[in-house]
Amino acid sequence: MKSDPPRLRGADFLYYAAYFDRMPTMNEKIFKTLEFDKVLSMLAEEASSEAGRARCLALKPQVSKTEIEKLGTQTEDALQRAFRETPPEFRAVKDFKSLTIALEAEAILGMGELLSLAYFLENTGQVKQYGASREEADSLTPFFEILDPVRGLSTEILRCIADPETMYDDASPELKRIRQGIGRAEEKVRSELTRIVNNSREFLQDAVVTMRNDRFCIPVKAEYAKQLPGMVHDTSGSGSTYFIEPASVVNLNNQIRELQIAEKKEMERILQELSIKASAYVEEIRENVRVMIILDVIFAKGRLALKMNAVKPVLREDSCMNLKGARHPLLDPKKVVPIDVSLGEEFDLLVITGPNTGGKTVTLKTVGLLCLMGQAGLHIPAKSLSSITVFTEIYADIGDEQSIEQSLSTFSGHIKSIVEILAHANRRSLCLFDELGAGTDPIEGAALAQAILEDLHRRHIRTLATTHYSELKTYALETEGVENASCEFDVETLKPTYRLIIGLPGKSNAFAIAEKLGIPSQIIKAAEKHIDRRDKGFEDIIAELDKRRAEMEAKSKELEQLEEESGKLKEKLSRQNEKMTSARERILSEANREARELLQEAKRIADEGIKSFRNMDGNTTIRELEDRRARIRKALDKTGNSVVLGEEVETGRKVSPEKLRLGDTVKIVNMGLTGEIVSLPDKKGNCAVMCGSLRTQTKAENLLFIKHAKKQEEAPKRTVATGPSKAMSISPEINLIGMTTDEALFELDKYLDDAYLSGLPSVRIVHGKGSGILRDAVRRRLRKVQYVESFRAGEFGEGDAGVTVAVFRA
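The structure assignment produced for this chain is given below.
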């Protein structure tokens, strides 16, 4: 009896809510203004399935702190899993809505639909297995537990269906019987037609057998058509050829047609049976689809966080935010300048000033966009411990608000937008204004801008505004809870640095920029006379403060560099000391072990020598004594050479991959094994080392060079057992039938190594026909074995499709 899979219930239903639009979110106009839609497009590129990509594009920022915290934790757990193991793929995930509706209506699914369902269920099983590989539970564990791969259903579908157009003969005994009957009848038809063709070549246009209207025919010249009794099924375009079904094969063709009709009916019956089985699991399929789409989105968030080098923001409840090293996600990470922005702790209104193209607008968009990302459960490109708060709405008046359709000027467009913001903003809102009050008379514009900011400040609404007005700089200096900030500008190079400096108002630098660009100095001096003395003094004070700030920052940066270098040196010395201690202990341990082994070997040889001499009889000649002594000496010398070899291994040197040669003796450092190079490093630095009878793949960087091959030009490409015993003990065939895929591949790997080393030129691998899963797994593995030159399916008499013949490299 089928048991019900676990379900998400109660509060856990929020897991689904954020992904299927069942929670309230903020207005969508802000998404385009702050380019949140472009971030979602980047997220969609990281998803594996079309359904996952569509869900990524529909993602919305949430306004529930609990939900935001859950979403952020899911992204963090996906990121942590990605660090330890490659995330799963969700390529087989589709929207099976129409399929499940058809199953509920007891419709018969086609082979393509059933195959897609089987692939999806297999993908579900792979994802579930990936989730089970982690011993400690995390926020993603409930999703993995819900998944039900319905393995019996997918296995049965894959047993019956080969591809969207083909059903296996073994799908049912009846289908196999019918197809065998078709095969026998077709063979009889071909035999009869071949006889007719051979006896009537002068009547035929070509000595071939062809098909017309699903009937076997032969092409007869028009003038001889009446001389060959049978049915005409077609003629050539020129009329010179008649395609005739000879009377002698009509009954056989009829028999084939009847069997084909029976075959079609049997296939429809099998499809109906599979569809009925699938209909019993409609709810499991729907649940799997929902969860797999959610997991695809979550892992896409994790991959995007990894690509952006992003972090999970701290979610605060006190309406404060503090972004450290924040970067705009759409700008080149190699060029973007990180900024530090805080709001809500000491001030809730920030006035940003500075020259044009200095990064003021980018600062506004960065703050707003990172808040949207954080509230959508995405990690933000910033430093660790950056914090955000939950805003129910984010409003922005950024860019040109001119509207031709409504006959609005730029100023009118901005005012219309500001009116809407003032009417709806509250303490849980974030307001962003770019060039507030611009587009009209400077005096009136500055006064209006200050009045707007005063209203927002009085209502404790978090606000960032950029401006050129000096009046707003003064307002920020004189008003508690309001702070100045400036975007740094290098007057010498006439380029912005894009650094945000909180606490210092910015200069417009109009005169300095104009003079650098070529305006005559007398005109600059004349312009300065038109500036109010108080304004000029204010700008001079700002310039002096900015100069001192730059000097202090330079000194502070120099001290930080010195401290960092000192720390690195200390850490380097500590690591070197640890390595030396570890290496000394390892060398001593290895030397002691080898010494014990060598002493035991020497003792064994000496014992054998003594025993041999004691057993000599009086007939032993001097020559025989000398021969025995020489053999013992040779054995002891070999033991002595092992001591030298051991020292060479320990004192071996690293060698460049391009200097390695076939047959060179090397040591695999991380495995403690010594062997010979049998495959030179490839482009990735991977090579093969033969350690006794064990062939090992390793990186060239893990090798210590011991000695070159005795004859480098004749270095063997293949180490083969020289005695007959090894080859005779290895069977030229391995039978994998009845094993699971993992068991079969494990046995296959061992068998191939033994067979290759024994000198066999080729081997037969018996895997059976079945559903083809084991056969495909075997052939995928053979493609990866470097010493397998080629492989093919068995021929008639070799086992047909149930056998694969592998040929080794010479």
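Interim note for the steering committee: The CA atoms of residues 353 and 689 lie 66 Å apart. DSSP finds 23 helices and 25 strands in the chain.
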